[in-house]
Structures are given as structure tokens and as C-alpha cells.
Amino acid sequence: MSAPVLDPDLLQAFVAVADHRSFTRAASALNRTQSAVSMQVKRLEERLQAELFHRTKANVDLSAAGEGLLGYARRILSLNEEAVGRVREHGMDGRVRLGVMDDYGTLIVPPLLAGFVANYPLIHVEMETGLTSSMTDRLGEAYDLVIAMHPEGRGEGEPLRMEQAVWAASAEHRVEQLDPLPVALYPQGCLFRSWAMQALDDAHRPWRLAFVSHSLSAVEAIAAQGLAVTVVKSGTFPPTLRRLTARDGLPLLPRAEIRLHRAPNLSRAASLLADHLVAALRQPVRRRAS
């Protein structure tokens, strides 16, 4: 004999009576008539072949069977609500404009977007990479979400992870021994550019700006050829480069915070992507081989 099916409507009436200890108050909470609630509880009792409440003129108390059912009923109703919401959101459409740093947009974010789009195929994500220092000023106008880098302990937005700024150079050339030190950096507005210049000046290390580009790949290629040193994030350290430390005569650089910025009045589609990115990027960083 198959087990009886527990109708969520019947369970909802049962939980309401259990919570309010009254058929009248339960009916009011559910916007149903008292007779309808009583009938639903009766149908549930008949289906389970068990009395769920002890009824008196003054009280409505759970029976032993009712006590045993209550936890399961709450879980079934919760799962039912979650499943309905999930199916409805799967069919949600919309457009989300995301701004992100070049290295994260190249290495970190694409797999996260692939997972998101698999769950929400009708939401279209438009991603732009570049210097995020100016992107946050255009939230709501040009971007719905921006993943930006800030000095440790500074900046608004939701903290995602920490990144250590590190020096990097060719694995085959000892360019760090040159004097003045050739440096490949990003344009003005890049946090790592200002940190590198300030650290070298404070260390009284002679240097020259050998290469400037918006392109992460171009800067890394120049460094890989032994034409300059550069600065990268520890979490996205290029496998083609060699990490430099104080033993190589390079000054220590600060740590940065990666933060998510949300535009005001986000759409549901943008909020879903934001929550997805926060959950994924707060996971421990898997270091790339160097």
C-alpha cells in the first residue's frame, strides 16, 4: 500500500492551527473560513489516519501525532516554496551590466558567469573590463554591478576577498638587477601603478616607466620578455612570470580589498547575479601556479 500524499494546502492549514492554537485565528491568518480550515485539517487526519489535535472548548493542542508531524510539515512547505521560487526565477529574463578589473574579467569571473547563465539562461550579462576606479562613479548609469579594487580598509561596497600586490618579472631574465629599474604599469588611475611608484620612491630605488598599457596581456607579455617588472595580484599571478620579493631588492607592496558595488534600485536579475558573485568570490582563493 502506497503512502498517502501530503497536500501542501492541507499542511498549511495544519501548521497555521498549530501556530495559533485556534481554528478561528488560523482561518483569519490564511484568509479562509473557519469551516474550510477545519475541513482541511480533517482531510489531513483522515489521510494520515491519526488525530492531530486535542480539541476542547478552551484550547486546541497538538496530539503526539501532531507534534511528530509539525517539523516535517514546516520542512515540506519550505521546500515547496523554495522549489516554486527556483523554477520561476529560472525563467526570469533581464540584462545586467557588469564592470570588473581586467585580470578578474579574464581569469576569475568568466567561470562564475557560466554557472550563473546555466541557471538563468534568459538573463543576459554584459561585462566590461578596465580600470574600475572610474566605473564606480557610473553605477546606475553605465553599470549595475562593479567589482573594484580598493586599499585595505577603505572603500564602500561589499568585501569579497583580499589580494596581495606582488612584483613579477620574467622567469628567464634578471631584469630586477637593472639600474634604473624598468617598470611596466597600467595608466593613471590604477591603484597598483601608484603603489609601485610610491614604494620605489620610498625605497630610493631608481626606476623608469618602460611600458604603459590598459591591456593586462600586453603588460604581462612585456614582463615575460624581460623588458620590465610589473605588479600583479597574488591570486591571479601569471604562470609565465616569476614572483619577486625583498630578497630581489623590491620593496613590499600593500594589500588590496576586492569589493562589489551595487547600483541603487537593482533589478531582480542584477540582484541574483550580485548574490551569486558574492557567494563565489568569498570562497578561499585558489592560487595559480607561478
- Name the quaternary structure: single chain
Outline? elongated
Tell me what portion of residues adopts beta-strand conformation. 15-25%
Rounded mean pLDDT score? 90
Determine the CATH superfamily of the largest domain: Periplasmic binding protein-like II
Q: Which H/E pattern describes the elements? A: HHHEEHEHEEEEHEHEEEH
The number of helices is 8
| SS-derived structural category | alpha/beta
CA-to-CA gap between the ends?
63 Å
Rounded radius of gyration (Å): 30 Å
Unreliable stretches: none
From the 3D coordinates, which CATH architecture of the largest domain would you assign? 3-Layer(aba) Sandwich
The main pleated sheet reads as:
7 strands, mixed
CATH topology heading of the largest domain: D-Maltodextrin-Binding Protein, domain 2
Beta strand count: 11
List the helices and strands and how they pair.
Blueprint: H1 8-20, H2 23-30, H3 34-48, E1 53-55, E2 60-62, H4 64-90, E3 94-100, H5 102-119, E4 123-129, E5 145-151, E6 158-170, E7 181-185, H6 191-202, E8 207-212, H7 216-224, E9 230-233, E10 241-244, E11 255-262, H8 268-281
Parallel strand pairs: 3-4, 3-5, 7-8
Antiparallel strand pairs: 1-2, 5-11, 6-9, 6-10, 6-11
Helix pairs in contact: 1-2, 1-3, 1-4, 2-3, 5-8
InterPro entries: LTTR (IPR050176), LysR_HTH_N (IPR000847), LysR_subst-bd (IPR005119), WH-like_DNA-bd_sf (IPR036388), WH_DNA-bd_sf (IPR036390)
Keywords: DNA-binding, Transcription, Transcription regulation
Protein name: LysR family transcriptional regulator
